[in-house]
Write a structure and sequence with these properties.
Largest sheet: 8 strands, mixed, barrel
Structural class: alpha/beta
Protein name: Diguanylate cyclase
Keywords: Coiled coil, Membrane, Transmembrane, Transmembrane helix
Number of strands: 9
Shape: globular
Bound molecules: ligand C2E, magnesium ion
Domain EAL: 24-278
Oligomer: single chain
Organism: Petrocella atlantisensis
Number of helices: 12
Helix content: 40-55%
Length: 283
């Protein structure tokens, strides 16, 4: 009996495995089609300056508008695109699209806005990354100072010397470099000394529940001080409540992002926020 059951389980297991592989292949094919057919869209989340009390820029966040499955978030397809190399094509599109969008906003009169673009490790291994960014800037009124490139520890970690050189080169041209998800990696402090960084983004894990958590508050405070000593700006991610914003204001955090200000929005809705007299009221 036991033998029969074992065989059934084995059978069951291979069936699941086969289904998984089929799904994976299907998804990979779909992603290729999406890349060819431009099924991607950038959403924009505002960055709010606590001193100026205004939106100073937007972060571009990719969405896959799948014809049947609807909106697919980046965490569900960016890792796969990194594995199969499609990230180079997708990432190039993101760079062009985000830079063009910011340029349009500048032409409309919002001339101090910045754009943040997320880069993944594989894009750093691409020798054409700098060229791609420069090409996207051709014929635009915006300057490199308006463009922020977001990297994570893991982005840089894959080939630290290579990544450091590319970042230094871009920074010399005026582009801003920000270290995303700060505090979640193994050696955030190390990278702070090695990489050429303008902005630190405190990961949202430290902001969540920070109102009730004294040790999180201490971490936030320390990161902000550390950044300022090193002449860097600080952005807090994932701010969802008024109290969190006030806590960050007290600690002299420069900018915040999060659902409290706005979730990521399609471009038209995102820029509309600029027209509303921005009233942050306690709720
Ligand atoms: P990230 O760069 O750290 O972006 C922040 C993520 O937090 C976004 O998720 C955003 O929607 C979400 N978020 C913003 N405010 C709040 C909040 O108040 N509460 C909570 N719980 N979440 C908030 P999203 O858009 O799903 O993106 C996830 C990750 O995917 C990004 O993390 C980034 O690493 C990656 N990603 C997004 N767009 C691109 C892209 O164009 N290229 C590459 N290479 N990666 C991208
Ligand atoms: Mg980011
Ligand atoms: Mg982040
Ligand atoms: Mg991230």
């Amino acid at each position: 009996e036991a033998k029969g059951k074992g065989k059934n389980q084995y059978h069951h297991f291979t069936t699941i495995l086969m289904e998984k592989m089929e799904q994976q292949l299907w998804f990979e094919k779909e992603l290729e089609i999406a890349t060819l057919n431009h099924q991607f869209k950038l959403y924009y989340q505002p960055k709010y300056d606590l001193k100026e009390e205004t939106i100073v820029g937007y972060e571009a966040l990719i969405r896959w508008m799948h014809p049947e499955k609807g909106i697919i978030p980046p965490n569900d397809f960016i890792p796969l695109s990194e594995e199969n190399g499609l990230i180079i094509v997708i990432g190039k599109w993101v760079i062009y699209e985000a830079i063009s969008q910011l340029n349009q906003w500048h032409l409309k009169g919002y001339t101090s806005l910045t754009i943040s673009i997320n880069l993944s490790a594989k894009q750093f291994a691409d020798v054409k990354l700098i060229e791609t960014i420069q090409d996207a800037m051709i014929g635009k009124v915006i300057r490199p100072e308006h463009v922020e490139l977001e990297v994570t520890e893991t982005t840089a970690l894959q080939d630290l010397d290579f990544a450091t050189n590319i970042l230094k080169d871009l920074r010399e041209q005026g582009y801003k470099i920000s270290l995303d998800d700060f505090g979640t990696g193994y050696s955030s402090l190390n990278y702070l000394n090695v990489l050429p960084i303008d902005i630190i983004k405190i990961d949202k894990a430290f902001i969540a529940d920070s109102i009730y958590n004294k040790s999180k508050q201490q971490v936030i405070k320390t990161i902000i001080q550390l950044a300022h000593v090193n002449k860097m700006d600080v952005v807090a991610e994932g701010v969802e409540a008024y109290e969190e914003m006030e806590l960050l204001r007290t600690e002299k955090c420069d900018m915040i992002q999060g659902y409290y200000i706005s979730k990521p929005l399609p471009p038209n809705e995102a820029i509309e926020l600029m027209n509303k007299a921005f009233e942050i009221v306690e709720c």
